[in-house]
Amino acid sequence: MIEEIITSGRMNPEIDPVLHAWGWEIPLYLFLGGISAGILIFSAYFTLRGRQDELPTAVKWLPLTVPVLIGVGLLALLMDLSHVLYAWQLFTNIRWESPMSWGAWTLFIITPLSIAWLAIWLEDIFPKWDWKFDEVKTVINWLKDQKRIMAQILILLSVILGMYTGILLSAFNARPFWNTSILGPLFLTSGLSASAALIVFFSKSEVEKRLFTRIDIILIGMELFMIIHLFMGHLAGTQVHIQAAQMFLGGPYTVYFWIFVVGLGLVLPVILELLELKHKFIPAIVPVFLIVAGNLMLRFIVVNAGQASRWLY
User: Fold this and answer.
1) Separation CA 263–CA 220 (nearest Å)
2) Whole-number pLDDT of residue 79
3) Number of domains in the chain
4) How many angstroms from the chain centroid is the CA of residue 255?
5) What is the pTM of this model?
6) Residue 71: which domain range?
7) What is the pLDDT of residue 99?
8) Are 174 and 311 in contact (CB under 8 A)?
9) C-alpha distances in angstroms, 254 versus 17, 251, 273?
10) Which of 45, 177, 183, 299 has its CB surrounded by the most CB atoms within 10 Å?
């Protein structure tokens, strides 16, 4: 199943692997999964810290988008499958050694849980809503009583979801560029970064904006460290891993990765966010657009680079 999902694209590696991208479905699925995980982690964590009223956008508002994001991501995944009608078989058993099985079951649990989580905040978000059905209000009140337990479960599942998007690729040993343990933490961190940027953009609270601007700067710093570690690991590996890294060090991905992902998607947003912290006027849409676009570009490039890298026989 993993091989079908990852290798069902249309790219011919003998042609320019960037200009002839093999599909948008899998990168979009990985991107939306990462953002969903980041939103839920922040919401659940700050709920446990008792800061839900101080940080309403992070805790209450953005989780409203998670079921939709997950749904669109799953739709993109299904569109990429060759045999959509057999996808249900993922849920007939659990294979502990399979990242795809872990991801499928995590999504199976986290999707209804995210809906229950947003239900907790509906009365806060829509205080004038007329709750005509007492049964609905009874269920919501019961969910509120389980809020701390749900938050703890959500953090665990969201970390798995955020890392799984990278582990799914790294488990595919036939592609040298993917064959690194750093992809899981990298994708989790980038998902958290994009989520923090969205919180800053949509928040109307100065306290919330400044807090998540600082968090995002730290997360981007971690991303840059992991990217350096990724290439150092490949350059210290076998000949095929060195060749995989060279696709980004003078090869076809060099400009796309270092300018659009690292330069415009990481370094420039950090500079803009530092200026924001110093009370310089920066249009809010600029850093968030650069970060989110850079996150999406990262997944497109990583997926395509993995397809272009191969073992020599």
Assistant:
1) 12
2) 76
3) 1
4) 23
5) 0.87
6) 2-308
7) 67
8) yes
9) 12, 6, 26
10) 177
Q: Report yes or no on 313 lying in a domain.
A: no
Please indicate, yes or no, if residue 116 is contained in any of the structural domains: yes
Cβ count within 10 A of residue 301: 22
The verdict on residue 66 lying in a domain is: yes
Spatial distance between the Cα atoms of 259 and 311, rounded to a whole number of angstroms: 28
* Residue that has been written with the tokens 């991303």 in this structure: 223
- Per-residue model confidence (pLDDT) at position 85: 64
H, E, C per residue of the chain: CHHHHHHCCCCCCCCCCCCCCCCCHHHHHHHHHHHHHHHHHHHHHHHHCCCCCCCHHHHHHHHHHHHHHHHHHHHHHHHHCCCHHHHHHHHCCCCCCCHHHHHHHHHHHHHHHHHHHHHHCHHHHCCCCCCCCHHHHHHHHHHHHCHHHHHHHHHHHHHHHHHHHHHHHHCCCCCCCCCCCCHHHHHHHHHHHHHHHHHHHHCCCHHHHHHHHHHHHHHHHHHHHHHHHHHHHHHCCCHHHHHHHHCCCCCCCHHHHHHHHHHHHHHHHHHHHHHHHCCCCCCCHHHHHHHHHHHHHHHHHHHHHHHHCCCCC
What torsion, rounded to 10 degrees, do the Cα atoms 193, 155, 231, 289 define?
-20
How far apart are the C-alpha atoms of 243 and 303, rounded to whole Å? 16
Angstrom distance (rounded) from CA 276 to CA 282: 6
CATH of the domain at 231: 1.20.1630.10
Instruction: Point out the residues of the chain with pLDDT beneath 50.
Output: 1-21
Output b/e per residue, 163-183; b: 16+ Cβ within 10 A: bbbbbbbbbbeebbbbbbebb
HSE value, Cβ hemisphere, 13 Å, CA-based, for 244: 31
| Residues in CB range of 56: below 8 A, 6 or more apart | 124, 203, 205, 208
Residue burial 250-268, b: 16+ Cβ < 10 Å; e: rest: ebbbeebbeebbbebbbbb
Dihedral over Cα of 139, 145, 151, 153: its sign: negative
Q: Determine, yes or no, domain membership for 265.
A: yes
